[in-house]
Amino acid sequence: MELGKVTALMKATALEIAILTGHLVLYPSGIVAERLSPAKPPAETPTPTPTTAATEPPAPPTPLAQGPRPVVLLHGFVDNRSVFVLLRRSLLRNGRDCVESLNYSPLTCDLRAAAELLGRRVDEVRARTGHEEVDIVGHSLGGLIARYYVQRLGGDTKVRTLVMLGTPHAGTRVAPLADAHPLVRQMRPDSEVLRELAGPAPGCRTRFVSFWSDLDQVMVPVETASLDHPDLLVHNVRVSGIGHLALPVHPTVAAGVREALDAGGPAVSGTREEGPGATSVA
Questions:
Q1: Do residues 161 and 125 make contact, with C-beta atoms less than 8 angstroms apart?
Q2: Taking 70 as the threshold, does the pLDDT of residue 42 lie above it?
Q3: Whose CA is closest to 218, among 240, 246, 238?
Q4: Nearest of 260, 265, 150, 280 to residue 213 by alpha carbon
Q5: Rounded distance, CA 242 to CA 259, Å?
Q6: Which residue has the higher pLDDT, 185 or 38?
Q7: Radius of gyration from C-alpha coordinates of the chain
Q8: How many CB atoms lie within 10 A of CB 203?
Q9: Are 142 and 154 in contact (CB under 8 A)?
Q10: How far apart are CA 49 and CA 41, in angstroms?
Q11: Are 70 and 131 in contact, with CB atoms under 8 Å apart?
């Protein structure tokens, strides 16, 4: 291995250890469910007077809610919402006034069950905020759960943009001894869940943005976190110089996530976003 690659790997490993240490300190604070954002009152529509009603054309329907879409954050395997402390702060400071996290139980044994739970949370957020759509950011397994919800459970009508950070779209071969856990088996190459996700998804409306790192030691091979599907609107972003745990923490990635969410216009069926999409943070 070249000296430069060794140095980069050592730096990334040291950063991973530092992030893991900090995350272990914060982990207990993320076990309890967060306080939800208050419901927004519906916009008032002025009552027309008899004169204006007779002379003016009817006003177009008022949208359910104004402003940026709510963002739902979904953590990875054996984790909780504390992993998103910095990303959540970044989103709130840059114009997103509703950012919420979903904790699914560490005892969850089926990715599909977690996807159904996510669907209920999305519906609850939409009803409470008045927005027709939300955005989702998922780290690792969280991205896979969100993708299953969007592709297989009809979530594409409710999710405008899905951002995934270090998600094993084609399965990861890391830690073979961890196969005792059903969720880990579902993240293996050629698992039943991954075969479902690889199947046709015609007309899927959601826009997918997948961040993958060339030094991610949890994604084996690293390219598994790059999404390739003929029916999906996909933009892959290659990140250099950091590992798996740094993806939801690093400020450069946070800036990329904000850009991806802000660019989340209506998806156009049958189109794909390609290109280098490389971001170096070394």
A1: no
A2: no
A3: 246
A4: 280
A5: 19
A6: 185
A7: 20
A8: 10
A9: no
A10: 24
A11: yes
- Using DSSP's 3-state secondary structure scheme, residue 148 falls into helix
How far apart are alpha carbons 262 and 90 in whole angstroms? Answer: 13
Parallel/antiparallel/unpaired status of strands 207-213 and 134-139: unpaired
Model confidence at 57: pLDDT above 60: no
List, in sequence order, every beta strand (DSSP E) within the chain: 71-74, 99-102, 134-139, 159-165, 207-213, 233-240, 278-280
Which residues in 26-183 belong to E strands, given as ranges? 71-74, 99-102, 134-139, 159-165
The owner of tokens 């690093």 is: 250
Q: Are 217 and 244 in contact (CB under 8 A)?
A: yes
Does an H or E element contain 22, and which? helix 3-26
**Cα dihedral 234, 131, 263, 60 sign:** positive
- What 8-state DSSP symbol labels residue 248? T
DSSP bridge partners of 280: 240
Residue whose C-alpha is closest to residue 39's, from 82, 74, 70: 70
pTM: 0.86
**Contact (CB, 8 A) for 15 and 242:** yes
Six-digit token pair at 206? Answer: 């959601």
Compute the residue count for the chain. 282
pLDDT of residue 206: 98
Q: Which two tokens stand for residue 138?
A: 């998922």
Which 3-state string (H, E, C) describes 161-202? EEEEECCCCCCCCCCHHHHHCHHHHHCCCCCHHHHHHHCCCC
Other Cβ atoms closer than 10 A to 182: 11
CA pair distance 262, 227, nearest whole angstrom: 20
